[in-house]
Amino acid sequence: MISENVFIASNYAISIHEGSFQWSAPSNIALVKYWGKKDKQIPANPSISFTLNNCKTITKMGFAKKENDGNFSFDLLFEGKPKEDFKPKIQKFFERIFDYCPYLTAFHFTIDTENTFPHSSGIASSASGMAALAMNVMSLERELNPSMNDEYFYKKASFLSRLGSGSACRSVKGEVVVWGNHAEISGSSDLFGVEFPSNVHENFKSYQDTILLVDKGEKQVSSTVGHDLMFGHPFAEQRFEQAHENLSKMKTVLENGDVENFIKIVESEALTLHAMMMTSMPYFILMKPNTLEIINKIWKFRNETQIPVCFTLDAGANVHVLYPQNVKEKVLQFIKSELVGYCQNGQYICDEIGIGAQSI
Ligand code: DP6
Questions:
Q1: Confidence (pTM)
Q2: Can the peptide bond before residue 118 be classed as cis, meaning omega within 30 degrees of 0?
């Protein structure tokens, strides 16, 4: 098992003075959900996700050598304009990763970030945002240590992303990513995400995810608070065990192309996630009436047409509609005629499986 000590950077001589990097990193959608964590962003159970392609954060990081006084120094821009309210998140991220990246205090950074998806769409930007930032930090580290190989580069990028936001570690590399120790997934780790190690069946290649924006408002409970409520939750242990079992089943399904069982696991995971929220203390509901309307419509459509379309949910009211590429036309037709009316301002985003972060 890899220890986190391998990610502690040596005290490299600071040989570079200034420069910049730019990376994009996508969002991801979990099939088996991460909900509940231990200290230091260690997940209470393993999870698996499809990496998305279109919903991305693009972050440019300029750096200039400064006196190393032990303090972090950075300017934060969102779409080119200063954004003070994002600064505490970045400050916290730097503090969390400092033990592994001691060179950070030797530079002043200018971080300019933007998302490809609409602002406050209810799509979490923490996964793509933290991953994009971690990629830039690793590019800087590779400048300081040019002998670093690609494997270490991506592993540590995922490790750092995780310290920013758990699910971000699944946005770094690969189409299907597992995060968290699991007996049947070789190389899996609580410390970083790994590419699903077996061949993914043709049926799941280019899988589509159309995100229906049901409610774009501020969430009433943040993911961080939600994770904490799994402490002392009456069903926590059974839930964590079930996630292990569902990941075993999902592994088989992704290998053998069994779309029917894929649907069962994915929808059950989504509803279980929300059931955990409804049965925590305090309890809360993140679904909206339109979320339920959409779910019922999807079930009816699937029953009537036998088209293998299913839904999943994140910690919010939006619905991710998942389906194979070969039924894209029919499903989009269905979405336009029957589901758009339940979306806020009729908004939805068409996405599909992608490959991870990209240097620009
Ligand atoms: C419901 O990764 O946002 O989307 O680690 O506190 O930043 P933090 O939480 P976060 O939690 C995401 C939870 C989820 C399920 C999932 O993506 O696996």
A1: 0.96
A2: no
